[in-house]
Structures are given as C-alpha cells and as structure tokens.
Amino acid sequence: xxxxxxxKTRVLVxxxxxxxxxxxxxxxxxxxxSVICLDNYFTGQKRNIFHLMDNRNxxxxxxxxxxxxxxxxxxxxxxxxxxxxxxxxYNPVKxxxxxxxxxxxxxxxxxxxxxxxxxxxxxxxxxxPTIHPQKxxxxxxxxxxxxxxxxxxxKRCAETLFFDYYRQNRVNxxxxxxxxxxxxxxxxxxxxxxxxxxxxxxxxxPITIFGDGTxxxxxxxxxxxxxxxxxxxxxxxxxxxxxxxxxxxxxxxxDLAHLIITMTGSRSEIQFLPPPMDDPQxxxxxxxxxxxxxxxxxxxxxEEGLEKTIQYFRGLLQER
Length: 320
Ligand code: NAD
Ligand code: UDP
Prior knowledge:
Layout: E1 10-14, H1 19-30, E2 34-39, E3 58-62, E4 75-78, H2 85-90, H3 92-113, E5 116-122, H4 149-169, E6 173-178, E7 181-182, H5 193-202, E8 207-210, E9 216-218, E10 220-221, H6 222-233, E11 243-245, E12 250-252, H7 253-264, E13 270-273, H8 288-294, H9 302-319
Parallel strand pairs: 1-2, 1-4, 2-3, 4-5, 5-6, 6-11, 7-10, 8-13
Antiparallel strand pairs: 9-12
Helix pairs in contact: 1-6, 3-4, 5-7, 5-9, 7-9
C-alpha cells in the first residue's frame, strides 16, 4: 500500500453498507486505504457506515451494480448481493441480475482500469453437498429451478465470468467462497438463523427451527472473515482461488438454538416449522487451502462470537 494522501491505494467495496461490507470498509480505512463504498441500500443500511462518514478517506456512492459505472480504483471487493434467503428470494430475477450483470460490470471496470478484483462467492455454489466437508474441487449439487437457484446459480455464473475474464482478458481476479458468517450489523430482519434465534431469545419468543434441526452449518465470526478476505486480496497473483473461507466448527441448528437460549438466559421454547425448499442438510468448509496458501484460520470460537453478537442485538432492541 502506498503512503501519503495522493497515492493511497483506492479500493471500491460494492455492497459496502451491508453486514460484511461495512466491516470491510472499516478495516480498510484503519489500514490507511482510500475507500469508496458503493451500495443501492437494498439490504444495506446507512447506520452501518455512519461512524465512517467523518473519515476523509471514505466516500459513499448510491448506485446499483446492475448498471455500469466508471471509477478510478486500484482494487475492487465485489460484495453487492443480498445474502439471506428471505432477501434474495424477494425479487429472484433481480438477484440473478445483481450477481451476473453486476459481475460483468465490475469485471469490465477492473479490466478498463487494471484493478485487482475479488468476488464474494459463497458455499451455496456447492448446493446441498453430497461430499463432506466441502473442498474447492467439489463441483456442487444445485437444483437449477429451485427457489435458491437465483442466488446459487447467479453466484456460480459470477465465478464463471471471473475465470473467463481472467483467462480471456488477464484481469487480476480473486474468488473467495464465503461460508455462513455472523456478527454485529447483521440485518435484524434478514431471517438468517443466528440473528433470528438471538432476537427471538432476547424477546422471549419461540425459537423457530425449520425442519427437525439436525441440519448443520459452520459459523464464522465476522472479524475472522474480514481478515480472510483481505488476505485473499493480498495473496500472490498466482493464487486466484477459489478458496473456501469459513469456520470448520460444525453445529446442528438444534444445538445452536440451545446454545443461544443458554447464553441469553432466555425462557424461549423451541418451535419446529416445515423446512424450506432445497435447504442444504450439511455444510462444513475444508479450509486446508486457505490455511496453506493464506496462512489463515478463524480465531474466534462460537461462544465468544455469539457473546459479541448478542450484545449488539441487545443494544439494538433497547434503542427501539
Ligand atoms: P448484506 O445483504 O448485508 O449486504 C449486501 C449489500 O449489497 C447490501 O448493502 C445491499 O444493499 C447491497 N446490494 C444488493 N444488491 C445490490 C445492487 N444491485 N447494487 C448495489 N448494491 C447492492 O449481505 P452480507 O452478509 O454482507 O453479504 C455480502 C456478500 O457476501 C454477498 O455477496 C453475499 O452473497 C456474500 N456472502 C455472505 C455470506 C454470509 O454468511 N454473510 C455467506 C456467503 C456469501
Ligand atoms: N433456520 C431455522 N430457523 C430460522 C432461520 C433459519 O431453522 O429462523 C435454518 C435454515 O432452514 C437453515 C439454517 O438455519 O437450515 C441456516 O439458515 P440461514 O438462512 O441462516 O442460512 P443458509 O441456509 O443460507 O445457510
């Protein structure tokens, strides 16, 4: 990274007002980068980035990446896309457009200004996996016509575009496959399991488990994820990914519910509801590639991460 005011590395973070994007902007500003946060506020919130507004190295642009934009930047983190099933299924055609046309627009920009570009891909490219844990060379098991397909196939096509721009146009790419990540600034209404369970527990409402709760996920705390994304962006140019980023500590949804009830001291009871369509049964990243190539592994265990997240939602509910 260059020093001095006029030759700082200029970084564009699409989806910068979202959960992961806002933490990423904050981290990059702390490291002295000049940051442009681009967002259409579909699921992002201005409150996520208010505290950064006074920083003279921070700029915000309201823009939709489905439309082209021209900016002079050195690096692009492409995070713009709703991530929770409720939000990405709200307007599925738009979700595919954001993933595919957004990727084309951001890759076109990277090509034009010779910027390095990182794609926030997802464990959803593996669909409902038939191998466990998931390694990067597994091609996945996705239902092309299901309700999750707008996101899963959109993200898969985005990966294809990244690798074609890399091979065809020599764009300097990075692809990170993010597994379930949680922490402060998750959208309270996005229906993701960690935020839902914490809010339900704090309000003494029933904890809604979809299915029988034996399905598993592996939860990564946001600080660890941001560290992984930054390391991937700064990896040597011959390591473009895809690389899994996530916490391999696997938990059933039922165990997660019990843990959150205990940690919040809640009187909430568990309510079992029908499972959603194509809900993946097991998910756990094999992170040996990230460990060997990026010297990265998560450091925050689930209790520590949940404690910080519970504190955040407690504050949010008190404010209301
Ligand atoms: P989020 O919904 O909080 O953030 C997404 C941001 O993108 C929001 O600020 C939203 O307003 C913005 N956005 C959406 N569509 C846009 C568009 N067309 N133009 C401009 N901005 C747009 O979600 P998040 O959890 O922060 O996820 C960020 C990225 O990481 C997403 O690409 C997501 O697919 C990926 N990811 C996240 C997780 C996770 O567990 N959080 C897991 C896998 C992948
Ligand atoms: N889930 C649940 N209750 C909720 C929200 C989610 O049981 O209130 C389940 C959901 O069916 C899935 C898991 O928790 O099996 C993780 O869901 P989430 O939407 O957080 O993420 P994803 O399915 O994309 O991994």
